[in-house]
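Milestone 3.1: sequence recovery, worked example.
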């Protein structure tokens, strides 16, 4: 991989990882509800889990989509159903009394597994492999996966920090509840750019 391609790939990884999407909306909510330290496993699960996903998709799963286009439709339906469930969990994360929040942040394995039902993650993975690992060799796919894993974690941490800093404004249960409902709505809206091209 040449220096120019590596630079372009790194820029693509940063922009696609740092822009709003299901992962970042969830990290924003987690940072606000649980703080930065408790959200670290969630962030690591995203970065490492997505890198692993790119590797597996590039080495074989893309061929499945090429051979059976209906599999992508099925994946989209399952992903949307799961997103609805996650939005409901975020909306109800605030405890009815006090600053203590209900539930727990996502674990490393939960965050890693989430990448497989995240429409934006699938779009990013397929695009990255198509553009930067066209031959789908293990070396090319592995390089793309490593770059994304390295860039993704510091990129998504921005959203966790932002959420943590918002905690000072979420001092009442009513504000926290309103924030969580807003995050739930934004999580669902983040699916729009990914789902609309498929609907068209």
């Amino acid at each position: 991989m040449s220096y120019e391609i590596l630079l372009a790939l790194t820029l693509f990884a940063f922009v696609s990882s740092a822009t709003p999407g299901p992962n970042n909306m969830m990290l924003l909510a987690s940072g606000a509800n649980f703080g930065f330290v408790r959200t670290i496993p969630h962030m690591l699960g995203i970065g490492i889990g997505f890198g692993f996903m790119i590797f597996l998709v590039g080495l074989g799963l893309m061929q499945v989509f090429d051979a059976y286009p209906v599999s992508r439709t099925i994946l989209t339906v399952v992903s949307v159903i799961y997103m609805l469930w996650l939005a409901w969990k975020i909306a109800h994360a605030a405890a009815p009394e006090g600053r203590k929040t209900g539930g727990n942040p996502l674990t490393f394995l939960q965050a890693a597994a989430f990448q497989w039902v995240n429409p934006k993650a699938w779009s990013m993975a397929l695009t990255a492999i198509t553009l930067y690992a066209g031959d789908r060799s293990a070396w090319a796919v592995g390089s793309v996966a490593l770059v994304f894993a390295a860039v993704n974690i510091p990129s998504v941490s921005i959203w966790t920090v932002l959420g943590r800093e918002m905690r000072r404004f979420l001092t009442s249960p009513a504000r926290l509840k309103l924030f969580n409902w807003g995050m739930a709505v934004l999580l669902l809206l983040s699916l729009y750019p990914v789902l609309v091209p498929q609907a068209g």
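Confidence is low (pLDDT under 50) at residues 95-99. The chain is about 80% helix and 0% strand.
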